[in-house]
Amino acid sequence: MELKRRDWVLTQESFDRLLAYLDADRDRAGEMYEKIRLKLTKFFRWHGCALPDEYVDRTINRVARRIHEGASLHVSNPYLYFHGVALNVLREYWRTPGREHRPLESLPPAQAPAEHPGTRAMEAAQQATTEQRLVCLKRCLGSQAAENRRLLTEYLRDAPIRTIEHRKRMADALEIPLSALRVRVFRIRSVVRDCVRRCEMKPERPH
Amino acid sequence: MTDYLLGKLSPEDQIRLEEQFFADDECFDQLVAVEDDLMYDYLRGRLPPADRQRFAQRFLGSPEDRANADFAQALLTVSHDEHQTGDIQTSVVSAFRRTGLRLGPATTLVRWSLAAAAVLVIAGGAWLATETIKLRHERQQFELARAAHDLALDRERSAQGRGTNQGTAGQPGQMPTIVALTLAPGLARGTDEGARVSIPAGADLLQIELGLKPNREYGQYRAALQNADGRDIWTQDRIVARRTPTGQAVNVTVPANLVTPGDYLLILKGLTARGDLEEAGDYAFRVLKR
Fold it and tell me: Are residues B159 and B195 in the same domain?
């Protein structure tokens, strides 16, 4: 079984043409490009692709190649064109045998014949990582505005009523739709998560 | 949106929703937020059993997924603690304010006695409230720990391939045999000190985790597998590093049929900001086939 290789390389010239297709303004085109990448990544992830980046690249390369070769892309919305190409790439993915990728850590011992000499050290390091994560999380939550912190804890609270009812009441109290509340909480969580990642990467300070 | 994320929509409805979120940023933001909420619902045991299994198969498979789950678990724990702390303070202050005692003209002794009694009543009430909240906290900690245990079990079940396969409706699932190997940089090829891996007959993929040298990080990597003759037999570009408990690492997946018994060298190069490739590490291993 051989992995399929991309047989067309995205050059700077073809990338520039792709951006120009998205928008005449290069800054806006760059924003659109990043948004397309994000949506494609989620699309492939939500369809079960373990390595979405490869398929995102494949999709973008195909669209860029068509533009580079002078094809006229008659679509009202460039995002939908990318979606159409992504569907074809996804269908090829499903036809490829042996496409499932499982993370190393999920493999049972019988399928991991090579022993890692530092297994015990890794387990101890993992425990330390968990403890450090909690410290970082408390610090990052503390750095949030009180209102954001309150919103986050209230949203996650184990309310005595159904979760959806609890959140609807929260949304009503804020006079915003439930969908807007959900997105607001997600953005706060994303900021906290990024803060925790940065905090975890820092070396420990001496006591 | 939840049904889409759990793979319960028909192919036509999937495409319809996808067209919507590709064309509409608000719809996309909503879907991403629903995906995030699902993680918390999963960890708190709020999903029905069938949905729970679907979620575990779809959203707990990769190291990044598990990092998200670990973060969510930690956030649930910490936010629960914060909420309990707030409750204690609020409840004590509210209880004190609600007494509404009005003291008319009275002797100092009576006033002090009444004040002392009020303090005792409030302190006793606060102690009872604290104990009740502690017990509730312990119960919820137990439930969080049970959710974490269930999470670990679901991961193990996913790894052993039980239940339905992930993917669009009607697509058959195949579980290839994958052999795993972890390598550190710097071991010489052809020596007895290098890592060895046995690849059983019928194995499909060789998945290799390459530990990275500290303080040498790049945005992307390129991996090339050389055989004993020094010839490249396989390459992979645009590899991104991830964080592991022991440092940064990259994962590569090589078709097992490319690696016959013998010595190999995986050469890793990092892509600099200028677009140049720099040496990032050499990884030697020996393949033994049964």
Answer: no
